[in-house]
Amino acid sequence: MGATAATAGSAAAPLVTPGWAKKLPLAALVLGAIGVLAGLFNPDAAAGKAFAFSYLTAYMFFLSLCLGGFFLTLLHHLFDAQWSVATRRLTEHLACLLPVMAVLWIPIGLKAKTLYAWMSHDPHSDPALAAKLPLFTVPAFYLTSVIIFALWTLWSFKLRANSLAQDRDGAAKHTQSNRKWAASGIFIFAFSLTLAAIFWMKALQHQFFSTMYGVYYFAGSVWATLGTLYLITLYLQRSGPLAGIATKRTFKDIATLLFAFTVFYAYIHFSQYFLIWNAAMPEETFWYYLREQGTWWDIGMLIVFGHFVVPFLSLLRIDAKHCLPLMIPLCAWTWLCHYADMAYNVQPVLYPDGFHFGLFDAASLLFIGGALATAFIKYFNAHPPFPQRDPRVAETMGVYVPPASH
After folding, report:
1. Less Cβ around it within 10 Å: N or C end of the chain?
2. Does a structural domain hold residue 250?
3. Who contacts 177 (Cβ-Cβ below 8 Å, separation ≥6)?
4. Sign of the C-alpha dihedral computed for residues 333, 337, 340 and 342 taken in this order
5. Residues 239-296: pLDDT tens digits?
6. Strand partners, 323
């Protein structure tokens, strides 16, 4: 990488954010809202359907970042981690965007019958649908969605509330409470994420069977979130709020976990593909067959090489994890590959000949991204940038505090 390469956590000139950049989230929200409203209430059925698939693709992409933040917060409390103290407030805010995602889910609820063909099928004449009863019914779809968001809201806000309470009084009881919430929350997280991935994405082709699908979505979600977290932490460290706590080790640990989930995602996706290919059952193989047509083959190759080979080889060296000329483009690359992955799951139903990106896709990304960025900035400005009295905060900052007694 070279001795002169810029490294994360090293001394650098403070980063000053220009005024126009602070207005970008709101501008994206307003501009995207125009396109979203035009698609949501478009009288043309074909345009309305195109919007629905574009919006769902963008929604599942951004949902994965919120769920990744939720998981990393749970992980911190489950393992009493030290390295993630510097970034825990950021992951707490990402998790607390899930109630915002509940509001942003409304267009999907309104367009559900356009998106999910099974809602118009008779289960008595569709064996694949009958096998999934009573889960795949219209009332169950909406009820389950409401319960999923309620659980995410409860756990994410409770974890952050305890964290903020500890900022005020420093009591150890808040750490102990969060460990208990995390112990139950990890099961809630696994079960609810699986249901969300099945109901909102896999159900586009309800005939498809896969026991790996929930884990597959989880692995990609955390992978993309880690790339996002690296960039947010770097920006806040260089601009000031995390300058005293985000160290070279912080970035190394985020990148190490990114490397781990690069391998984990590849393992899960290959396992799903290999099992389906080996079994050669029509109710499973049709899903991959459709995604080998047209430019979907190219997207598949992007997932194989871009989602795995490129980050795997790039992150093998230890010093690569601190090299900003490598890590900044690589973290941005995670967004491209993860969006391609979401499109690979959603869009072949509507565009069997290949990948499509149009105005509705851009508008959906701007609208959801702008809304989440606006909420995240509001959260961040309203609270301390990192846990002020976490039991491990001094250790994270490299400060030795002698014990009060033996």
Report:
1. C
2. yes
3. 162
4. negative
5. 989 998 999 999 999 999 999 999 999 999 999 999 898 888 888 899 999 999 999 9
6. 7
Q: How far apart are CA 337 and CA 220, in angstroms?
A: 10
Higher pLDDT, 231 or 14: 231
Asked if the bond preceding 14 is cis, omega within 30° of 0, the reply is no
**Residue 249 domain boundaries:** 21-396
Distance CA 386, CA 240 (A): 12
What is the domain count for the chain? 1
118-141 burial code (b ≥16 CB/10 A, e <16): bbeeebeebebbeebeeebbeeeb
391 conformational bin, left if phi > 0, alpha if psi -120 to 50, beta if neither: alpha
Look up tokens 């809630």; give the residue: 188
Cβ partners under 8 Å of residue 313, min gap 6: none
Q: What is the mean pLDDT of the chain?
A: 92
Distance between CA 363 and CA 34 in Å, rounded?
8
For residues 387 and 87, give the distance between their C-alpha atoms in angstroms, rounded to a whole number. Answer: 9
